[in-house]
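Run folding on both entries below.
>entry_1
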Amino acid sequence: MQKNEVVLMFSDIRGYSRLLELDEQEALEILSKHNEISQQLINEYNGNLIKRLDDSILATFPSVNDAFLCATDFQVRIKEFNLNRKKPERLLVSIGLHKGEAEYRFNALAGEQVNVTARLQSMAEPGAICMSGCFYSAISRMIEPKVIEYRDISIENIEGSHNVYKTLSIYPTEFKAERPVIHQRSDFRYRIKDIEHIKGTGSSFLGTTLVALTGLSIFILLIAGLQSQQSNDSAMVLIGAWFTAPATYFALIPASLFFAALYARRKMRAVFEDIRDVDRILAYIMAQLGYRQPVHRKGFLLFRPEPGNYFILGMRKFSARVDGNTIILQGPYLYMSRLIKMLKNYEQTGNTKIN
């Protein structure tokens, strides 16, 4: 009998039996749409569909991050599908997420972990996700979802007491939370052993400045050429006038430096004394800097700026790799310097604000 560590997702259409009684054809169309959306998202998030059972599905994923993102995206896609539908005809889904060792019997997934996941699903309101304690503990190291916490509760036909975490339903006015919403606290403490700039990587500030200066100069030459065609002056006269004017340099040099600050990339290594919460520390500091929660890509954490920061402040993405108690991070020169200051300041004061 083979046992493997698996990440499980179990979903179910709520009220499907009632839909069948009201309009069998409509219910079958809803089931078909449910199967289409679920299959697309399971594939998109690297999952594996284990089985379908009428209106329920069981799937596995390579990581808790993939499973959670799939589940949340699943609820969003279903809500979009329901926008123009009457309440009795809506597709409502509840989802359970769990991780643990499951058994493979005759090439099929079975055992208590599957049962736990199914029970968690039944505890979730329509439009909500219910997570086991071990799943939430793992996902909260990367993402801090709004949840309702239930401590030391019993789960039907499962031995012992359990901690369970439920997200708010995406239909909050219809399926209200029974308890206040909590955020996982971010008041962790840490000690930094070393922060160093890794030389010879990324693109240098000076090199990027020269590239920008060259590009802007070529742009001026092109403008001068176009103007010479529309006037009696030669291009050389216009170019000479532009490049001897102090105003040109007052514009070119600051613009080149600003471009370099945004696009020059710097790589650094931060080593912490403790291995615990290293990825959560990074995610928290990056959030204070104006970046969204990370996405996992081929062993790296990819941080993208909030849309407003991208367009208004010109922020660019960061990539990070967490290896034990070490973070190797690459990102824009300007914001890398600010990030290092924030890390050091939070270590000393517990505050991310810097003067």
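>entry_2
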Amino acid sequence: MPTKARIRLWSTNIENLNFVVNQIKTLAQKTGVEISGPIPLPTSRMEVPVMRLPHGEGKKKWEHWEMKIHKRIIDIASDERVMRQLMRVRVPDDVYIEIELI
């Protein structure tokens, strides 16, 4: 029987990600279960160069667009009561969450 739940969170907006992480931490502190984390993982950075002039005449000038993806991992004891409350946590649209029982 699994005794821990691993919660993976990722988002492009770090403020919303930290908001959800703080909600999970306060939930664990209120219920008194053991929590490990949040463990920050390396930030993925994607860069897309785009040519400013689409017709290609003149000098080639480039704009660089980038997107950063911030990730966190939290390990929490998988008590049934805690898991039910965890499902009720408000998660913004740009924060993605994945729960795995280990």
